[in-house]
Amino acid sequence: MLLKWGADEYVTKPFSPKVLTARVNALFRRMEQEKDKTALYGGLVIDIAARQVFLDEQLLDL
Fold this sequence. Notes:
By secondary structure, the protein is an alpha+beta fold. It has one helix at 17-33, and strands at residues 38-41, 44-47, 52-55, 58-59. Residues 1-28 form the Response regulatory domain.
């Protein structure tokens, strides 16, 4: 169900710390490959290269 809603990954309980670490590292590898991209989610814009997040064209202070 979560993947239908746009999740990239999920871990079911119980899980081992090794599995969690491996999945997080895989996400980081994917993020490195998509460094130049911008993610759009409705009014939310994530500029990965600039490390900025906008909501309805307003820069969010994170």
